[in-house]
Please model this.
Amino acid sequence: MSYKPTMSEPRPDAADLIAAAREAATRAYAPYSRFRVGAVAVADDGRIFAGVNVENAAYGSTMCAEATALAAAVSAGVRRIPVVAVACLDGEDCSPCGNCRQLMGEFGVQEVIVEDPAGGTRSLPLSALLPHAFGPGSLPS
Model:
């Protein structure tokens, strides 16, 4: 996704971010689980990066949508990502896995927006999803 807001333009609202995540999910590669997930990572400068889950027959090699969205942002040079939105197709409820929550903590995610099966959105602070997080500040200097 190549959306870049102007300085005076506000961040897209939760519904717009979920719509972008749902659109991304249509491109997920999920031949084994058929659980299609899309995510968008919103950089601190407003750029939006999409990601999808990418499954693999060797299940441990599977990549989550949140991780691929974060990787796209980091690949573009972003280091602060305050918001991530996640959507699953087919009315599934989805929440980031523990590994993705830890990855979000690494890049300063503060808000996680998820779509609920009824089509609404929930906005949660990462601290509620990852209490007592271990992050860069936990390491000795």
